[in-house]
Amino acid sequence: MQTAAAVADFRTYPLISALAGVQVLEDQIRVRWADGRVSPFHHQWLRDNCPCPECVYNVTREQVLEIVDVDENLRAISARIDQGFLSVEWSGGHHSQYDPGWLRAHAYDDDSRAERKSAKPKSKLWDNRFELPVFDYAAVMEDPKALLKWLLALRDSGLTQIRGVPTEPGSLALIAKRISFIRESNFGVLFNVQSKANADSNAYTAFNLPLHSDLPTRELQPGLQFLHCLVNDADGGESIFVDGFAIANALRTEDPEAFRALCEIPVEFRNKDRHSDYRRLAPIIALDALGEVAEIRMANFLRGPFEAPVEQMPLLYRAYRRFIAMTREDRFRLVKRLNPGELWCFDNRRTLHARNAFDPTSGARHFQGCYIDRDELLSRILVLQR
Amino acid sequence: MQTAAAVADFRTYPLISALAGVQVLEDQIRVRWADGRVSPFHHQWLRDNCPCPECVYNVTREQVLEIVDVDENLRAISARIDQGFLSVEWSGGHHSQYDPGWLRAHAYDDDSRAERKSAKPKSKLWDNRFELPVFDYAAVMEDPKALLKWLLALRDSGLTQIRGVPTEPGSLALIAKRISFIRESNFGVLFNVQSKANADSNAYTAFNLPLHSDLPTRELQPGLQFLHCLVNDADGGESIFVDGFAIANALRTEDPEAFRALCEIPVEFRNKDRHSDYRRLAPIIALDALGEVAEIRMANFLRGPFEAPVEQMPLLYRAYRRFIAMTREDRFRLVKRLNPGELWCFDNRRTLHARNAFDPTSGARHFQGCYIDRDELLSRILVLQR
What we know:
Organism (chains A, B): Pseudomonas costantinii
Oligomer: homodimer
Radius of gyration of chain A: 26 Å
Largest interface: A-B, 84 and 85 residues
Family (chains A, B): Belongs to the gamma-BBH/TMLD family.
Number of helices of chain A: 11
Distance between the termini of chain A: 17 Å
CATH topology of the largest domain in chain A: Double-stranded beta-helix
Structural class of chain A: alpha+beta
Shape of chain A: elongated
Helix content of chain A: 25-40%
GO molecular function, one term (chains A, B): 2-oxoglutarate-dependent dioxygenase activity
Number of domains of chain A: 2
Largest sheet of chain A: 6 strands, mixed
CATH architecture of the largest domain in chain A: 4-Layer Sandwich
Protein name (chains A, B): Gamma-butyrobetaine dioxygenase
Keywords (chains A, B): Dioxygenase, Iron, Metal-binding, Oxidoreductase
């Protein structure tokens, strides 16, 4: 049993509880469910969500109705339960019918909202005891279930490794495209991480790189970063990872004032060469609408001079020093050497990465990398879960 | 006269005012300029911004020093003016020297900050009397000055037209790449806007499309949108534009409560087909760090059911209706028919666009479109301005 709206969504809405009673009030319809829950639905809301073919175009499954074309004082003339559906007659003549599964899934009484909030996926924080989720290249390439498992680990833990990847240059694109198209940047579609004489970033030297996110100079930092090892004969160059969300949450507990400063005082990051000049002013820690840590923006070597009011400057330095000091604490750090045929895939806005210095005279070292955004990861997960 | 730091920036810092006096205090150095301004610089800040080759790698021009490696209680032992430069001896032995032009450009006393804030480019709001900035394809392709003029109009007004563009499919990519690489989406690198039988969006029907931004279902909506007309023989299909920033600012004055609701209550936008399922919860109006309107997110046909607390729902509907009603007011609307060889380029996060219904039986209509992000626009402008 599903209405056009349920189909439109490419989702089905199981019947959680049947409609048991309906009451028309001044500006809303009050629905009572068989399990006792009561959900108010405003007349405007119900009319806005009418799933009939006049209101929703059934080919694109997109709304054609614009609520502003409906009378602001629209009222339900009558509402009843009809074969399990909520059936409403509107002043002015329109008729609407709502699937009870769909209606329950979109109810906005406090209980229903709390229920949906608690069902949302949560980040699993980790430290140096993290059991790295490792996946097999062939399985991920062929089996949609293995693919989904990998993507869920990426979403929830933000750090994964794939083994058994071919070591021909460009192979990375094949596995990236199992998720989606690649996000291009001024460094290309695939970028080569090698020590270069004329480096345009410290990433392309043999230096150690402190813990950082890539492209903090952009309004939207890339969501996923891939690093694929083709050759690794040089001494040194181990990868280091920390869970930036775990550090931010620890800071929130251990030094709330420093945490707030990093959430509130914007800092400029910049990256420039002969052909580009990227600059972005943003706080180091970003929170989502619910106040949870949603993003870390950090790369000391791409940071501009702090530009805060004079009286905030000592606090900003104290907070910044503290955060960097925490990224160096053993309790958070995972250190691993990547071998040819292995790749890292991690949430670039959460999992900070670093590299130990390596000795370019001791052997060759060649990694390739690319980016994909969180939007594409989440879309792919939803499609695989259908 | 410029130090390594000034070179690192690819910018030069003219001498605005000479250093006239230097005083070392407990945690800062107080600089007096020849024009009377006084700028405090904290010891931590100065040490952090030391431009010497030990602290900044001169090939990549990126910082190697991490301030956390410097003593938290670092103090200047002495500071003096040396051949116009600020010269500082640090406890622990390091020596730093700062170009007075660079130092003035980064001073963070109140006057210097206010001066820089007021020098930032500001949006020029427009209404139905807007004199559309029109540019010539050949000039923009060949002349960097014409290119810069176009990009500044895009940045400041958010709506431009180019004429004389070849009408071969794919030509759009040539002009887009004058700015940067193109941002791909699930609709492709270049997308074709044509009426299709099996449309996966109302954009690909012959319906009228209400005023909207593209891809409000993504965390970062595309910054620039191009729409290039190859064929336009069908009756109807005129383009309509409004300055979403102008409408948001008018709403802010005329109905502050509605404005706040659209800034604060997040709304879900979604777009799904057999291969993708994009969802994004975000407010319709986003403000920047200074409280200025920075983004409009709006597409009624891609909006999901509102999910706000019961007591907020009437206000949300009132605010939403009011905003949509304003987009329909003549005072804001610019209506123009696009001819073959012309293209629109506009700020997709500011300038809402719409299309009148057209009659696909009356003739062919074929547009191509693509996206580029604001980051790339701003980078290109900075490089052209060097």
